[in-house]
Amino acid sequence: MDLLGFGDLLLSGTWVTVKLALTSLAFGLVFGLLGAAAKLSGFWPLRALATLYTTFIRGIPELLLVLTIYFGGSMVLMAIAEQFGYTDYIEISAFAAGVAALSIAFGAYSTEVFRGAIQAIPKGQWESAQALGMTRGKTFFRIILPQVWRLALPGLGNLFQVLLKDTALVSVVGLNDLMRQAYVATGSTKQPFTFYMAAAIIYLGLTVLSTAMTTWMERRADPAARRAAA
Amino acid sequence: MNWNWDVIVEYFPRLIDGVWVTLELIFLSGLFGLMLAVPLALMRASQSRWLRLLPFGYIFFFRGTPLLVQIFLIYYGASQFDAVRESVLWPILREPYWCAIIAFTLNTAAYSAELIRGAIQAIPKGELEAADAFGMSRWLKIRRIVLPRAFGIVLPAYGNELILMLKSSSLASTITLLDITGAARTIIARTYTPLEIFATAGVLYLTIAAIMIGCFRLLEMRLNRHQHYKMPTELSAVDPRLSD
Hints:
heterodimer; A: 230 residues; mainly alpha; MetI-like fold; B: 244 residues; 13 helices; amino-acid transport (chain B); ArtM/GltK/GlnP/TcyL/YhdX-like (chain B); cell membrane (chain B); cell inner membrane (chain B)
C-alpha cells in the first residue's frame, strides 16, 4: 500500500485505532460487569446509581463525552490534585481521554447486555449451587460467569463494532488515529476523496475482521453449536 | 474549580439555537432516510436474488464505516473532482448543512433498511396468503398489508435508531455546523468553561431523547392498539343477551 507515499502513515494510524479500540474494550468490559452487578444488587442505592449511569451515558452523544473528558477532565484532575497540594498543570492525553470516554460508553451499553445474560440463567442453578453449599460469590464466579460469556457474546460483538467505529471520534481531539492521519495526508496532497476512501476501506476491513472474530468466538463458546458444525 | 452558573444562563439562548439546528438535521435526514430505506428494504426482502443483492454493497459500506468518515468523504471528498465542482450540484455540496444532511440520510437509510427488512420478514405468512386469496395485486398487497404491518412491527426498533441518530447528529459540529455540540464548542472557545457548557448540552440531549422516547411510546400504543385490546371478561358487557 503506497498511496502517494502516505500508506505507512495510514497504517500507523490504523495501529493506533486498533490499540484504542482494544484498550477501551478491556476497561469497558470491567465497567459493564460492575454496572450489571450493581443493577442486580439487593442494595437500592447501588441499583439507582447504575440506572443513572446507563440512562445518562446512553442519552448523550459519544462525541460530547470525548470532548467533555478531554477539555474538562484536566480541570477536574487539577482540582483534585490541588487538594493534595499539587498545583502544576495537568494535561490529559488524547489517547487517555479517548479510552476513558469510549470505555464509559461501552460500559453503559454492556451493563444491559450482561444484566440480560445473567438474568437469562435459570434461577434453579443458583438454588442448586446453594444446595451444594456454595456461597453467592462462589456461585457467581464458578457457575454463572462462565455461562454469561456465551450468552453475552452476540450482544458484546455488536457493541464492539460500534466502539470500533466510534474510535474515529477521538481524532477530533487530535489523536493520531487512522481518521486523523487520513486528514493529515489530505492536507498535503489535496486529494481528500482518495484518502478518506482509503480510511473507509480500512475501517471496513477492521469491522469485517471483528465480525469474523466474534462469530468464531461464539462458536467456541457454545459447545452445542461447535458439535453441530463438526 | 468553581461551578459557574452565570455562564450557563448567559449562553443558554445560544444552545437553544443549537437545539433547533439539531432537530432540523434529524427531522430532514430522518424523513429522507425513510424515503430511501423503504424501497431498499423491499428490495432486500424480495424473492429475486439479484434484487436482494443490489443494495447489499451500499448497506455494507454505510454500516461498516464510521459516520465521521462518511461526512468527511462527502464534505471534503466531493471537492476533489472537477466534474463535481462544475456541476449544478456544487452549490449544494459546498454547504456543510446539506453535506451533513446527505451523510446522515445515507447513513440512517442503510440502518433503517435492515430494520424494515426484518419487520417485513416478521409479518405472519398467513396475512400475506390471505391478501393473495383476496386477489390483491403485488403492489396493492405491499401498500395495504406489507408496509402498514411492517411499520407497526419496526416502530420500537426505529425509535432506537432515531435516538442513535440524535446522538450522531453531534458530528455535524465537525464540519462547522452550530448544532448543540457545535454551539457548545464555540461558547467554550470563548469562555473556557467546558464542564458547565458541555453538561448543559448533555442535559439538552437527554431532554430531547426523553421526549422522543415518550412520543414513540404513544405512537406505538396507537399503531399496535390491536395488541393491547382486552376481551371483556363479562360476556354480558358485549351483548346483554349473552348473559347466561
